[in-house]
Amino acid sequence: MDVSLPVLAAGVAATSAPLIFAALGETLTEKGGVINLSLDGTILLSAMTGFAAASATGSVWPGFIAAAATGMAVALILALIGVWLGQSQVAVGFALTFLCRDLAYFLGTPYSRTPGPQMLRAPVPGLSDLPVIGPVFFDHSLIVYASFLIIPLLWYFMFFTRQGLVLRAVGENPEGCWARGIRPRLTQTIYTVAGGAFVGLAGAAYSLAVKPGWGRPQGCEGIGWIALALVIFGGWHPLRVALGAYIFGILQISGIILQDLFPTIPSQIFQVAPFPLMIFTLVLIHLSRNVRSTTGSRLLALLSGTPPLALGRSHKQQ
Questions:
Q1: Does the structure show a pLDDT above 90 at 90?
Q2: Which of 123, 220, 292, 311 is the most exposed place for a label (fewest CB within 10 A)?
Q3: Nearest one of 308, 316, 265 to 32, comparing CA atoms
Q4: Which residue ranges form the domains of the chain, and what is each CATH number?
Q5: pLDDT tens across 283-316, in order?
Q6: What is the pTM of this model?
Q7: Over 80: is that where the pLDDT of 57 sits?
């Protein structure tokens, strides 16, 4: 398989775009102290609603809006039950992910294997023809460009704005924030819903750009769990989380290449290989927290981080 490095890098960027939205959306949610385990089902339901809305209107933009609204609605349900009513966020998230998955396949039956609009590439004039960096950064669809922008924007928001400071403070000590006049539950609700919007956009990115169309299987099942793992992999830091998304994209592209190089090996092995490799990496990062005597363990320790102290914990203040 003769493919140039820029083409491979461009493929990684396009493949990783939806995962970046989902993982950074969950990072935003968890920084506020809320854990959302409904990502996998939300991505599927958003992919379906996005494709359905785009098919009905003939334009991808209503599809992205509908998908973001779907993600926000699911996240709002989690916030109402898990934050305001104080129920287990883990249990609610699990219930929502299975509910959303089944709803997606049930309600999406009329749109299964039907043609619909998709987001096309939008090369940047004068830049897409540049050697090496042109195909990597400037020859994608708009959703990929948006995934490039969201990484530094979210990083700046979290660590260089007052609102980002409030978000991180609520995730660490909601009771202390309440004593300072901040409403932790309202803050958590706002950023849980905002994170859900990013997750919804990830679903639409699959059905309208990366893997256009709707059907069963959609091709994005399991991505929500990978996004959750990437948040841990990146130590709840947006830059490192995005790095993890690109690493997973490299693993996926590598699987496609290896499948062509070794046609006698069942294709299913290469399709599932990125998932255990990501789990293996998480195990190494966990071990690196206690073993820091080697250069390799110190490098892995750079990727580790501490979760917000109040993550998943309900509190009584309003």
A1: yes
A2: 292
A3: 308
A4: 5-301 (1.10.3470)
A5: 766 666 555 555 555 555 555 678 899 998 877 6
A6: 0.90
A7: yes
